[in-house]
Structure formats: structure tokens, C-alpha cells
UniProtKB/TrEMBL annotation:
<dbReference type="InterPro" id="IPR036291">
    <property type="entry name" value="NAD(P)-bd_dom_sf"/>
</dbReference>
<keyword id="KW-0862">Zinc</keyword>
<dbReference type="GO" id="GO:0016616">
    <property type="term" value="F:oxidoreductase activity, acting on the CH-OH group of donors, NAD or NADP as acceptor"/>
</dbReference>
<dbReference type="InterPro" id="IPR013149">
    <property type="entry name" value="ADH-like_C"/>
</dbReference>
<keyword id="KW-0560">Oxidoreductase</keyword>
<comment type="similarity">
    <text>Belongs to the zinc-containing alcohol dehydrogenase family.</text>
</comment>
<protein>
    <submittedName>
        <fullName>Cinnamyl alcohol dehydrogenase 1</fullName>
    </submittedName>
</protein>
<dbReference type="GO" id="GO:0046872">
    <property type="term" value="F:metal ion binding"/>
</dbReference>
<feature type="domain" description="Alcohol dehydrogenase-like C-terminal">
    <location>
        <begin position="1"/>
        <end position="79"/>
    </location>
</feature>
<dbReference type="Pfam" id="PF00107">
    <property type="entry name" value="ADH_zinc_N"/>
</dbReference>
<dbReference type="InterPro" id="IPR047109">
    <property type="entry name" value="CAD-like"/>
</dbReference>
<keyword id="KW-0479">Metal-binding</keyword>
Amino acid sequence: MGHHATVISSSEKKREEALEHIGADEYLISSDATKMREAADSLDYIIDTVPVGHPLEPELQFCEEKGLTTLIQVVKMDYINTAFERLEKNNVRWFVVDVAGSKL
């Protein structure tokens, strides 16, 4: 789609997969402060897919400095049917289901 994609990970384990199989243009190790600083001005969007709790301060600081805001709406499980209805009506583009915060 013409984007320059950078994968940021905590280790070298996924480098080959990211570059050769997924097609990322760059691969950075998140603990390499120098490389992360160098890349900061080249990032327009961040898609955070980490499935566990982790500090968001570096990302939140980056977003604040760049004036970036979220495109998602967080919803609880009891709102899921309404969320799908809104999606069908194109009333919302992205939503994330807060399973942990929902009463199941």
C-alpha cells in the first residue's frame, strides 16, 4: 500500500519473520534507545498489538509530541451488539472490546 512499515519488538526472535515473511521495511529492538530515538521522527502511526500489560509512556509521550489521537473506541462486552450495528452503519470505524473489564 506504499507505507514504510517498522516492526518494534523486545527481542531478535521475530526479525526474520517480520522482514522476510510479513514484509516489514525495518525491525527495531525496543530496548535500543538510540535506534528508537532515531526512528521516532519517521513514525506517523503506531499500531500496538502487545497482548500483555506494558508501559505506554514512551508511546503516549510520542503521541502527545506529534499531536496524534486514537481512532478506536473501547467497548464492554454488553455493548458488542450495538457496536456491530454501528459498524454496519459506518457510524464507528474501529473498536476494541474490553473483555477484562466486562462482566461475563
